[in-house]
Amino acid sequence: MLRDNVVIHEGTLAILKRFKDDVKEVVSGQECGMSFANYQDIREGDQIECFQVETIARSL
Fold first, then answer.
1. How far apart are CA 50 and CA 57, in angstroms?
2. SS3 of 41, please?
3. Which pTM value belongs to this model?
4. Residues 17, 24: contact at Cβ < 8 Å?
């Protein structure tokens, strides 16, 4: 999560909701609710940046 282009939290998504239902994904352009593990201070203007970490074994 970014606030003023500074990383303020790096963690996992705890809950994703569409209306009152827990969902695994939401179609682009639709509204949803989100909650993050161990973080509650979400403010207007915060940006959510998603990424996946991959571990790649070295090879010669």
1. 23
2. coil
3. 0.65
4. no
